[in-house]
Amino acid sequence: MSIVEAAIKSAQLRFRAVMMTAISFILGVLPLVVASGAGAASRQSLGTVVFGGMLVSAIIGTILIPAFYVIIQSMTENMRQPKTRL
């Protein structure tokens, strides 16, 4: 299996688990985002940052991690190949 095929297959296999974890965390932080009452300003600011960070990391992470794997693994395999002299 090529490096790109391996990255695509692993991304497909792990996508559901990663997204379920991220979505459950995001929904768990949602009460902080819509907080009201005493001390609500600090809870809202903390909730907003965590909510946005998890949302961005879930979206970008599912794209960038396989891409970084392809780049690093390609570089590693290129370094392992013996150099031929002419």
Automatic annotation (TrEMBL):
SUPFAM superfamilies (UniProt xref): Multidrug efflux transporter AcrB transmembrane domain
Q: What keywords would UniProt list here?
A: Membrane, Transmembrane, Transmembrane helix
Transmembrane: present as a keyword of the record?
A: yes
- What Pfam family is a match, any one? ACR_tran
Residue intervals passing through the bilayer: 50-72
Per the record's keyword annotation, is Iron included, yes or no?
A: no
PANTHER family per record: EFFLUX PUMP MEMBRANE TRANSPORTER, PTHR32063
- What is the protein name given in its UniProt record? AcrB/AcrD/AcrF family protein
Q: Which organism is it from?
A: Nitrosomonas eutropha
